[in-house]
Structures are given as structure tokens and as C-alpha cells.
Amino acid sequence: MPSFAQKVSTWLALARLPFHAVGVLPFILGNVLAWRLRGAFRWGVCAWGTAGVVLVMLATYLAGEYWDYEEDVLAAALGPSRFSGGSRMVQQGRVPRRAPLWGSLAGVLLALAVAAVLQWGYRTGPWTVPLALIGLLGGFFYSARPVRWVRLGLGELWIAFNYGWLPVAVGCYLQTGTVAPPVHRLALPIGLSIVNVILLNEFPDYPADRAAGKANLAVRLGLPRASLVYAAIAAGAWLGVALSTGQGVPRTALWLCLPSVALSLALVVQVLRGRWRDRAALDRLCGANLLVNLGTTAAYLLAFLMG
Predict the structure, then answer these.
(1) Whole-model pTM above 0.85?
(2) What is the torsional sign of CA 19, 25, 28, 33?
(3) From CA 191, how far away is CA 1, in angstroms rounded?
């Protein structure tokens, strides 16, 4: 019988808390954007909204633990990776297989409850609940059947939207009732960099995903061609950074983004050289790749805070 501490540890692993930053940071950025451009900011709205974002991600990650069970079993046989193959808590028998599914459904209901509190309690606007539903549509059904975006070849598009435009836009909308134009420019480099996070994370799972019939970019293209697409997406993100400043976005953001751009460039060189063929090196590349996305969002956030 597992102890309470072991149960907590297991559910924390299932929740994949370190990966929540990729959704929370863009949402906070949207809140700060609303404050700097419109002078609008309510702590209660920010707190409830952050909780809602976390719940949508919990619903997404836990759904993946249940619906990706077979792929994760195959991936585990290839060797451990911190960035792919799920938490493996179910495969190790630490929780029943259906437990993440029930946890995911609870996350869906709680996320909608939070959206209701925001829309009718804080009067954040008529699009609050619909935006939450859109986030859940892309997140929960990324892995969940019968939709399963990852099997339809639309997973990366939903990732770009759900972790790029949507959290920044929602953060701004909840505070102001509108989506400020700079949101769209900021969302481009953030969205493209998160697509590259998921794309490179597909590399270690490639044999398992192909055997399971997934249709993600890595499986459809094969890893050599996916490497070229990775480089092209990175270049698009660099261009997005260059075009994002001005018209409400501080020009200091360009300089603050330079470390992330430099790291991204170094990763592109390593990927094009085929370093992904070394599994240990690939794990390090995936970790650095995540920093590119977080660093890009943090750079915009810091630029707005600095004024």
C-alpha cells in the first residue's frame, strides 16, 4: 500500500508541473500587456485565470497519460527521456490506468467552473467561457479519442495555437475585454518556438509513434526531413522576433530575445548535424529547446515590465 507521500509524488509526476510554465508564462504576459497598454489589471482575474490555464494543461497532460498508454510503453523500452514518453507512472503500476482519465475529466470540469467564475463573477466578457472551451478542445483532444488531433496530423497546429496565441490573448482579454493588436505579433515567435519544442520531443518517440499510427510531423516526414523543418520553423521564429517590436511592443524586447535566438541558432546547427541520433545528446537538445521557448516569452514579459 503506497504511502500518502508516494501518492502525492506520483500525481505530481503525472501532472508534469515543470511543463506548465509554457502555458502560464504567456498568460502572465497577456496580463502584463493589458496593464502596460490599457492600464487594466485585477489580481483576482489574474489568479483565477492562472488557475484555469493550469487546469486546462492538467486535463491535457492527464488525457495523454491515458490515451497514449501503448506508445508510452513502446517508448519506455527504448530508454528513458525527460521530455517524451509521458511520466510512465501508469506503466510502472503506481496508479491504475484509468486514474489519469478521471483526473483529466475533473480538470475539464474545474477549468469550465473557473471560466464561469471569471465570466459571471468578475464580468470579464462573453468570450471567457468560449475561449476556455477552445483551449480544452485543442488540449484534451490532442490525445483523446475520438478526435485525437495527433492522429489526424493537426497536433502541432493546436500546440502553436494553444501555447502561442491563446494564452497571451486570453490574459489580455480577461483584463480588458479586448485582444490588443500586439498580441498577434508576440504570439508568432512564441507559437513557433513551442512547435519546435513538440517537434524535437517527437524525435525520441519516433519508433513508438510510428508503430502506434500517430501522424505527427516526425512520423510523416521522417527524422532527416523533420530536422530541416525544425530549422525552417526556428528561422520563422527569429523573423517573428525581428518583426514583433514597435506599435506597443518595447524595442528592448529585441535585445532581450537575443540570448534565446542565439541558443536557438546553436540548436539548429546541432540538429542539422544529426546530433539527434545520439539519444543522450537528444535529451540535452530537448532541454535546451524548452529554454528557447521560455526565454522568448520571458524576454517579452521583462520588456513590458521594464517599460
Answers:
(1) yes
(2) negative
(3) 43
